[in-house]
Design a protein that fits this description.
Length: 330
């Protein structure tokens, strides 16, 4: 009859310990699942000529979507007639663990007698539902996350409800109130406007006539940490122009990455022109590849003929050089 305690892992809040009374010369053994954080875990040992120790989370939809990112120390203690021997694996830091292949410790030192496998978790992180970045599941991480989320929601309320606004943004078809301090903290251009004796400082208004009120609201929502994905997709080009004009570098980078993701025949020429204007080299290369290497320029020849009549001469020259190079290699 199997002793169920032989597979049980004992745990505290950050420590897991598996006690194995005897491990034969050629053996595989897997522990019962044990809970640490929101995941179920397993330890396993496999002994042939070498002893292999594995640590991994139980396969589940949750673990696939939000795998643990673990920092830990593993120790193996061997207790036999000859005395007690302890082996310690070097500290593992921020290791994503998705399967039994992600952490394997091969031990080629002979171990006999009783074994204790001791795992001390130094930190356990996971991704937030919003994909902002990994955060610790323990108190310090939760405090930081709660603080960040509260701050973002407060900023969003300040904009949405117009709480103590002190600057008006005039778009092409409407106006919205905002806060100098928030804008200045996110944009060196706004900071310069509000710090020196310019008309924006005296009039408490900023005129942005080349952006619609809808795109302007999305721009401000991004600055205030409350951008909606669907609004972002709708106004990407306007956001790129605003990000470039007001030097919001992170927004410009996000727009660049997003515009790379869905190049097609309907938008490739507009994207190419945008890439040229704003010096987005990866976007330009992506458009060139789509048009030339994949031969899509032939599918839109009428639109392309109109495009080359108005596009910058240097850009047109680059396109034709790409076409010539492609033909040489055909």
């Amino acid at each position: 009859m199997t002793d169920s305690s032989a597979y049980r892992v004992y745990t505290t809040s950050r420590l897991a310990q598996w006690r194995i009374d005897n491990l034969g010369s050629c053996t595989y053994r897997k522990s019962d699942p044990f809970k640490l954080g929101p995941w179920n875990w397993y330890l396993s040992v496999e002994k042939n000529k070498i002893l292999y120790v594995r640590l991994y989370p139980e396969t589940s939809a949750f673990a696939r979507e939000r795998p643990p990112i673990a920092s830990f120390v593993v120790r193996v203690v061997s207790s036999a007639a000859g005395g007690r021997k302890t082996l310690t694996h070097p500290e593992v830091t921020d290791k994503p663990l998705k399967s039994s292949e992600d952490f394997i410790w091969p031990i080629d030192i002979p171990l006999t007698g009783k074994l204790i496998i001791d795992v001390e978790f130094l930190d356990l992180k996971t991704l937030s539902p919003e994909r902002v970045g990994p955060y610790s599941i323990w108190a310090e991480g939760l405090v930081q996350r709660a603080s960040n989320e509260t701050a973002l929601s407060t900023l969003a309320r300040m904009l949405k409800e117009g709480i103590h606004t002190d600057i008006i943004i005039n778009a092409s078809n409407g106006s919205i109130g905002a806060h100098r301090a928030v804008l200045a903290s996110r944009s060196p251009v706004f900071r310069s406007m509000f710090s020196y004796d310019l008309k924006e400082k005296e009039q408490s208004a900023v005129n942005i006539p080349d952006i619609s009120i809808e795109a302007c609201e999305t721009f401000l929502n991004y600055i205030y940490g409350n951008a909606r994905h669907e609004d972002f997709l709708t106004h990407r080009l306007a956001l790129l122009r605003a990000a470039d004009k007001y030097d919001v570098s992170d927004l410009k980078a996000v727009c660049h990455e997003s515009l790379l993701e869905d190049i097609d025949s309907a938008n490739v020429l507009e994207r190419l022109q945008t890439a040229w204007l704003f010096e987005l080299h990866e976007l330009k290369a992506g458009c060139m590849t789509y048009l030339v290497k994949f031969g899509k320029v032939f599918d839109i020849r009428d639109d392309f003929a109109a495009f080359v009549q108005t596009a910058d001469r240097e850009l047109v020259t680059e396109i034709f050089m790409e076409v010539l190079n492609a033909w040489r290699g055909f």
